[in-house]
Amino acid sequence: MRRMAKGTKVSAARTVGIVAYLAGFSAYAVLNSFVIGVPVVYGAAYAAIFGALAYYSYRYSSNLVFWRALDGSIHAKGGTAIYIFYIAALLARILVSYALTGSQEFFVNPIVQTVEKAAPETIMAAAITDGLLMVAAGLLVGRNAMLLRRFKRIKSGKETVQEL
């Protein structure tokens, strides 16, 4: 977190890798919700939430600050609150899974193993935390998409940044 607040070196491969890793973990958590009994139609709502917030975050990520270091590398900072929100939503989802369904339900293989459907309260808690997780993941993807767009513009010379 300290590095994010001070700024980090930007690279396309690293940014895409981090987003893929975090989005994959989020997708795994949400898929496990369908195994315990969350209705599959909620998947459309999750996708809509994710898409809308990714677009919103991409469109309004104006708080990203870029600069060029003495060695020529490009650095950026901004959007730390989005990462904090993502971590909080992911922790809430994991805690709900452990507290209400037990640890074995979070680590099931949805293709091979079927699980007895959970209580309605558990399904509701999982659906709410999944929605929060989709909000956070959408914000994260949108922020990083804008970061990549601006990084490519800076690399190609279409946008200039301050040298530090």
Secondary structure layout:
Blueprint lengths: L1 H5 L1 E2 L2 H25 L5 H18 L5 E4 L5 E4 L2 H22 L1 H4 L13 H37 L5 E2 L1
Parallel strand pairs: 2-4
Antiparallel strand pairs: 1-3, 2-3
Largest sheet: 4 strands, mixed
Number of strands: 4
Quaternary organisation: single chain
What's the pLDDT, averaged over the residues? 85
Residue share in β-strands: 5-15%
Count of the domains: 1
The largest beta-sheet arranges its strands as: 1-3-2-4
End-to-end span in angstroms? 22 Å
Element pattern in H and E? HEHHEEHHHE
**How many helical stretches?**
6
CA-based shape: elongated
Task: State the main characteristics.
4 strands; 164 residues; elongated; 6 helices; four-stranded mixed beta sheet; 68% helix; alpha+beta
Task: Tell me briefly what this model is.
With 164 residues, the protein is an alpha+beta fold. The chain is 68% helix and 7% strand. It has one domain.
Can you tell me about this structure?
The protein is an alpha+beta fold. The protein has one domain (2-163). It contains six helices and four strands; from the N terminus they run αβααββαααβ. Strands 1-3-2-4 form a four-stranded mixed beta sheet. A hairpin with a 5-residue loop joins β2 and β3. α2 (12-36) packs antiparallel against α6 and α3 packs parallel to α6.
